[in-house]
């Protein structure tokens, strides 16, 4: 896969500087735009994806789709919690102020934002992302997104993004390092209606969770391992997960969890 970095057609000086930094950080070639169309750049340089530094955001685009970072459903879910509505992830993970969470499948960080706001300043959220480009754009978004309430932006900035595989990172940790270890195996059963995310499927790692990984996660957690999946996927049965929170109709999102002290492992 061939990638490069460029700017919008009429960039300001700060866009040039930011593009240079992105190219340096990711060890990618920097293309001077010279008011050429994105299509012209793809054709001339024979690249697959472009990071485009625009006035107010960092964009990733291929020949058919573009994506820029946003917090997904996190803001809506936080608003619902403020109204007293139960949140399935919060219940499944038994999250409270001061909890520590290891999000092993960070992706674009929507669930991490939700969890960071729940656990607060005394808590901790670390997110692992195996793909360096998704890790980069998510870290950039968490640090620079402005269209959210101040308390949400505050907690977004305190999420630690780690570029690594969860197998490698889990193996490096001592026992009982986090209260909760969380998995959302994104892209395994993709939502085809989500066009912006579909454009980045080339970056996704689709290896399924294994019992070995769950066992390692149980070693690292203090309280629970939580897995987000869809009813009907068969994943919970494969992994021996019995406890579930969420709707039970086929295809709906549900959270399964294993208590550290139970025999479910």
Walk me through the structure.
- With 265 residues, the protein is α/β, with parallel strands linked by helices.
- It folds into two domains: 3-68, S-adenosyl-L-methionine-dependent methyltransferases, CATH 3.40.1630; 74-259, 3-Layer(aba) Sandwich (Rossmann fold), CATH 3.40.50.
- The protein contains eleven helices and eleven strands.
- The strands form two sheets. Strands 7-6-5-8-9-11-10 form a seven-stranded mixed β-sheet.
- β10 and β11 (253-259) form a beta hairpin.
- The longest helix has 14 residues, at 13-26.
- It starts with a strand and ends in a 6-residue tail after the last strand.
- The model is unreliable at 192-196 (pLDDT under 50).
Helix and strand pattern: EHHEEEHHEHEHHEHEHHEHEE
Beta content: 15-25%
- Mean model confidence by pLDDT: 90
The N- and C-terminal alpha carbons lie at a distance of 39 Å
Q: Write down the domain tally.
A: 2
Q: How many individual helices? A: 11
Q: What helical percentage do the residues reach? A: 25-40%
Class by alpha and beta content: alpha/beta
Shape: globular
Strand order of the largest sheet: 7-6-5-8-9-11-10
CATH H-level homologous superfamily name of the largest domain: Vaccinia Virus protein VP39
- The CATH architecture classification of the largest domain is 3-Layer(aba) Sandwich
Number of strands: 11
CATH structural class of the largest domain: Alpha Beta
What's the topology here?
Elements: E1 3-7, H1 13-26, H2 38-45, E2 49-53, E3 58-61, E4 66-68, H3 74-82, H4 88-93, E5 100-103, H5 110-119, E6 124-129, H6 132-144, H7 150-156, E7 160-163, H8 166-171, E8 178-183, H9 195-198, H10 211-220, E9 221-230, H11 235-239, E10 243-246, E11 253-259
Parallel strand pairs: 1-2, 5-6, 5-8, 6-7, 8-9
Antiparallel strand pairs: 2-3, 3-4, 9-11, 10-11
Helix pairs in contact: 3-5, 5-7
């Amino acid at each position: 896969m061939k990638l490069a970095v460029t700017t919008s057609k009429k960039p300001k000086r700060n866009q040039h500087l930011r593009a240079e930094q992105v190219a340096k950080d990711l060890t990618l070639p920097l293309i001077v735009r010279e008011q050429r169309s994105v299509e012209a750049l793809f054709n001339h340089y024979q690249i697959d994806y472009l990071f485009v530094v625009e006035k107010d955001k960092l964009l990733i685009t291929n020949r058919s789709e573009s994506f820029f970072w946003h917090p997904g459903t996190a803001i809506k879910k936080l608003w619902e919690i403020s109204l007293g509505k139960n949140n399935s992830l919060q219940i499944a993970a038994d999250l409270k102020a001061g909890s520590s969470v290891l999000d092993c499948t960070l992706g674009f960080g929507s669930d991490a934002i939700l969890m960071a706001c729940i656990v607060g300043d005394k808590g901790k959220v670390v997110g692992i992302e195996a793909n360096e480009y998704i890790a980069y754009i998510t870290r950039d978004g968490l640090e620079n997104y402005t269209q959210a309430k101040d308390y949400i932006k505050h907690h977004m900035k305190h999420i630690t993004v780690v570029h690594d595989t969860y197998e490698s990172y889990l193996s490096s940790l001592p026992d009982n390092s986090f209260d909760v270890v969380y998995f959302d195996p994104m892209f395994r059963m993709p939502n085809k209606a989500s066009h912006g995310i579909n454009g980045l499927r080339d970056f996704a790692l689709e290896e399924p969770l294994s019992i070995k990984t769950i066992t390692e996660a149980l070693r690292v957690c203090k309280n629970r391992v939580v897995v987000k999946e869809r009813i009907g996927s068969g994943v919970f049965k494969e992994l021996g997960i019995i406890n579930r929170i969420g709707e039970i109709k086929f295809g709906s999102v549900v959270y399964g969890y294993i208590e550290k002290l139970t025999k479910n492992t």
